[in-house]
Specification:
mainly alpha, about 0% strand
């Protein structure tokens, strides 16, 4: 694994940990249970980290 891949993987792991901590604190199993779903910075950071991890910082769109 390259240094770039490690950096994005680590950022994703940290964002996931922060998100899960928030969910546990609020007693939720999913962000969809939270009224801050669309305005939450913790969730936004996690989503951004997930996309960055998939793209390895190259940007661009994703086709699912």
């Amino acid at each position: 694994m390259s240094e770039t891949e490690d950096r994005y993987k680590l950022a994703l792991q940290e964002a996931k940990k922060e998100l899960q901590t928030c969910q546990e604190k609020k007693g939720f199993t999913s962000c969809t249970q939270c009224e801050e779903l669309f305005t939450c910075k913790i969730r936004k950071n996690y989503v951004d980290a997930a996309y960055d991890s998939m793209a390895k910082g190259q940007g661009g769109g994703f086709e699912f």
